[in-house]
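Appendix B, record 7
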Amino acid sequence: MDLAALDVLIVDDHEAMRAMLRKVLERTGFGSVRDAANGEAALKLIAERAADLILVDQNMPGMSGAAFVARARESGSSARIVMITGDVRAEVGDADALLVKPVSPRDLLAAIEQVLR
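Structure tokens (predicted):
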């Protein structure tokens, strides 16, 4: 799979988490990495240009990650989605995979590989 051709969207209200995820993805060879600080901004981004892969935090102010995923699916998004959460009891819902914090680069890349198969 050509990682450089994939469009990735990171959705997290913590700037440091977005920066860490971006760094790992760019070092791995992902070409287009966009980010949004909340679900509303992310929905606008995917309306402008579809994403192939979305990494979304579950616990965000305003729209939760689960609500974002539901709205993205309702809008027709076929992106592969990895939900990131601090709650080990969380359910995947409409996401394709669940990743529990703290997130290591190895675990992140394994989850991405799993959903992109």
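Remarks on this record: The chain has one domain: 3-116. The radius of gyration is 13 Å.
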